[in-house]
Design a protein that fits this description.
Chains A, B: Keywords: Cytoplasm, Lyase, Transferase. The structure is a homodimer. In chain A, 26% of the residues lie in helices and 24% in strands. By secondary structure, chain A is α/β, with parallel strands linked by helices. In chain A, strand 6, helix 2 and strand 7 form a beta-alpha-beta unit.
């Protein structure tokens, strides 16, 4: 069966089930149901602080086949997932589903748990490092389900992804289960990816290395959602939790791309008072922010908000008054954490508020401009940020598909070739984000506009920017690199890529 | 049928249904279900701001028999309920259920709507003024259902009270439905009573007189819950919304009671570091706070939190460092609003977080001491704050039963007689809060301790406080006033009093 993007996807996938096929970015609107939630009510005499992970596992009645969930705000510094899965494995429990918003290199102990049958399913929005590599080699019994950030909260709230026990890595928790990410030695800032888990899981456990007297302030996750609290020595390695400072690229090619992207933004007319903006933490993305900052200052423009994972660079723009407010699902650095502590206009959002297509309007719906990256782009503007040039998983949508769907102007910034391979191809290895949501691709050699955006094409014609078709861009790339060899794939499906509405946009097959 | 408190309650009540009878304050724990919620999902192109109440009523498809809800943060200044019900009535729609967290004298236009059959059911936590009086005379087709504040959110979240359309009076709303109560000419502070409505109603409409550009900060009710936004000239009369400053009584009898209550608190040993405290906005209640403040200062005590509807007086104690934090469901005055704006340790709570017995632990569960009032008390310590000496409804539980159930020490402060009637009786007109949750009654003539609190009796014996039995207190009162005449009642049930767990603790019968 081919879906509307031409991807070969079986109607039924072993270990995943019936496939609801992707039919377009906005084909699943209408009335949605948030599933009912089971709550173990707590009386005035109940205590929530438990003394050991063993007591936690007893109280939540952990058993074979359960789904346990984690969030990734501690990123490559997270200790909580490994700690919990190890403790469960020690009990001889098998067939866990691990639903974690992202997987990083530090989660490599998962590999052994997968090989031993402790973990037989994984649901995530992003994977990099050894776990991603091993899963790409087919070690997991069932295909990984990969969501977008908004799609994960949709899946949890709708009941598509039922969580038995959510484990919340809590930089600060009080004795009655109120949690925030602002304080403590493992402070990471906003906890947006953990909110749906806390609200919808059957049981919720906060694991903290900073247990404080009741009540903590501010409260990001309320006591009304948390069953138990466990104090441990450390929930993470601070070196891996937040980077020092995110840096703008100083590569001239990257800077050139950033300037061109900024010129595109200005030419569309969207760079004006009340504009909203999101960009990533990568070097080129930040360079685009730097160009925008310059322009906004020169023209005394005040935007309404910037959103996303928030970096120190965006905080600086906020502090300069270039944006009235910030929507923060995750702080990328200590500057962002500090800003979030000190201003109520730097406000948190849950992943659901950020990008869930099934609620009453996510923040991405109000985005004017988003700057995104790509590993590969096909001539229909479909973007891959999930698999690398070897066909192995090395990323995932995260907020890519969510913001691309919501924003009025979605710009991909990328060098035209990476590691001597062309970025633009007839067919990408994996479709993460559908081309209908991508408006402009900016490379150092030229700019391609999605043909359905006649309005943008019209506006860019009036500039000196090197506008061309995506086919022309592809030819330029291939002249430099030669036509890339196609990756040989087996039939084994190692990942199912769900679009934000839960339909299947693509699958990842194990490379040969 | 008599319930365990000896109240005559039918097994079935016309217009209410089967009665689940009250069996004790903590008899309904265990696993609870939050019902599923219907969500009309919103796409990037949808707009939420509508141009008129007529357009709102069209879009939510208002029709006969629907349940519409309102919150009472604008108190006696609220314009929104009258505006909406009038607009619906103009369409000839009948048989509405109006679920409003409290009813004030300004809601008297409801009387005509009740008489005309537009409104045939009312669900509320508190009623005073003409609507309460008329309902007590039997004008409503079905009995009013009266909840506690926590019980109302329980009923909404469990599905016992299904809301078709929630109308949120919004002091500030942005164009995408984010709401706060902090700014605008109708600022009222925290919006705790509206949260469950917004989260669970089929449709949610924010009605504001301060429409601001997206996004407003901070966000108390998120865009993900709000379908539509309507701008009107005024949502309320600021004179009725917040009182100027709440005042401590200067009546010597009231001051004497307050001093005795404070002595009781100290004698129990609960007045110490990390203590938590709640008191009302009445004159004696504030006088108790004043005594506590003095004691805490003298002994350098720092409490963990004060909670409730927050007054300027409690804010002063917070600012002096006597409490580390505040939990605020509703601001009683402008000082409270201002404090809420300026400190993140003055934090909001939803009514569910405040008092819902079915979530994973409400704030009331962590209360050490609560000071409450009473209209009548029986010799089993059961308290009436619902009906007056004429048998008519003039109040309701609000947070009375919730805090009494949660607090370690519940003290009723009251004069022993009011309007020449004794407060303590063999039988109260209506039971609002069960005696098992009341620990101490402090009057100017003596103090009675609930016999089951042997620990408190033991501690108070060591003081010079005038401890006596409640029967002795009753005799003193009756000596002054004579035995009061019993109120003659008809068989017509005009109100069903639901305890916070949804069981029926009492009914109100129409006085003869």
């Amino acid at each position: 069966m081919k879906n509307i993007l031409g991807r070969e996807i079986p109607e039924y996938i072993e270990g995943y089930g019936e496939v609801r096929t992707f039919e377009g970015a906005f084909k699943n609107g209408g009335i949605k149901i948030k599933k009912e939630v089971k709550v173990n009510s707590v009386t005035p005499n109940d205590k929530k602080v438990l003394s050991s992970i063993e007591e936690v596992l007893d109280r939540v009645a952990i058993k074979d086949g359960m789904t346990i969930s984690f969030h990734h705000h501690l990123r490559n510094g997270d200790y909580v997932l490994n700690l919990v899965v190890q403790a469960i494995a020690s009990r001889g429990i098998k067939n866990l589903t691990v639903a974690v918003s992202s997987i990083f290199p530090n989660h490599s102990p998962l590999i052994e748990h997968i090989k031993n049958g402790v973990v037989t399913k994984i649901v995530t929005n992003y994977m990099s490092g050894p776990v991603a590599q091993e899963i790409s080699r087919g070690i997991l019994k069932t295909p990984v389900i990969m969501h977008t950030h908004g799609g994960r909260s949709r899946a949890i709230e709708s009941g598509d992804l039922h969580i038995d026990v959510a484990f919340i890595a809590a930089p600060t928790a009080d004795t009655y289960g109120n949690v925030n990410g602002l304080y403590g030695k493992s402070a990471c800032g906003a906890l947006g990816y953990a909110i749906s888990d806390a609200q919808c899981a059957d049981r919720v456990v906060a694991i903290t290395d900073n247990l404080v007297p009741y009540p903590t302030c501010p409260i990001e996750i309320s006591q009304i959602y948390v069953d138990y609290v466990l104090k441990v020595d450390s929930i993470g390695d601070s070196a891996g939790i937040v980077s020092g400072t995110t840096q703008i690229t100083n590569d001239p090619v990257g800077l050139k791309i950033a300037k061109m992207a900024s010129d595109v933004m200005v030419a569309t007319g969207l760079v004006k008072d009340e504009m909203s903006f999101q960009t990533g933490a990568g070097g080129i993305s930040l360079a685009v922010a730097a160009e925008l900052r310059k322009y906004m200052k020169q023209h005394s423009i005040v935007g309404s908000f910037a959103s996303g994972g928030i970096t120190g660079y965006i905080v600086d723009m906020f502090k300069e008054g270039l944006f009235r407010s910030l929507f923060d699902v995750q702080c990328f650095d200590l500057q962002a954490v500090q800003s979030y502590v000190s201003s109520h206009k730097h406000q948190r959002m849950s992943a659901s508020m950020y990008g869930n297509p099934d609620n009453k309007g996510a923040v991405v719906n109000n985005l004017d401009i988003v700057i995104l990256g790509a590993t590969e782009i096909d001539t229909n503007f479909n973007v891959n940020v999930t698999t690398g040039s070897d066909g192995a998983i090395m990323g995932g949508s995260g907020g890519h598909s969510d913001t691309a769907a919501g924003a009025k102007l979605t710009i991909i910034v990328t060098q035209l070739m990476k590691a001597r391979l062309p970025i633009i191809k007839d067919k990408v290895t994996t479709i993460t984000t559908p081309g209908e949501c991508i408006d402009v691709i900016v490379t150092e050699r030229g700019i391609a506009v999605n043909p359905k955006r006649l309005d943008i094409i019209e506006k860019l014609k009036k500039t000196n920017l090197p506008i061309m078709t995506i086919e022309q861009l592809k030819i330029i790339a291939e002249k430099m690199t030669g036509k890339p060899k196609e990756i040989k794939l087996t039939d084994q499906i190692v990942a199912v890529i769900e679009y934000r509405d839960g339909s299947v946009i693509d699958v990842v097959r194990k490379p040969l």
